[in-house]
Specification:
single chain; 98 residues; alpha+beta; Ubiquitin-like (UB roll); five-stranded mixed beta sheet; 3 helices; globular
């Protein structure tokens, strides 16, 4: 069971409170987690990743085990602590400006 923490605006859109628990088949990667998330909550399609390219949107960041994984390969395995559900996978809206 993968634990996913969404920012407040995406929790509102998906109509969930708190963390989301997902089952991910096979290797646990960013791509696999986001595909499982979008399959379960179709209203989130296009909010985290582009519809056409499936690339992460510019002001969305992903973290696991206190590490920014935003620029890692979407097919790289996530840490074991995330894969086992011990640590959450965090999706965060980034801020810009000064």
């Amino acid at each position: 069971m993968i634990r996913v923490v969404l920012p407040a605006h995406l929790r509102t859109l998906a109509r969930v409170n708190g963390e989301v628990a997902l089952n991910v088949e096979g290797q646990v990667t960013q791509r696999a987690v986001l595909e499982a998330l979008e399959a379960r909550y179709p209203m989130l399609r296009g909010t985290i990743r582009d519809h056409v390219t499936s690339k992460r949107r510019p002001f969305v960041r992903v973290f696991a085990c206190e590490q920014d994984l935003s620029h890692e390969s979407p097919d790289a395995p996530l840490p074991d602590a995330v894969a086992t559900g011990a640590e959450p996978f965090l999706i965060v809206g980034a801020m810009a400006g000064g």
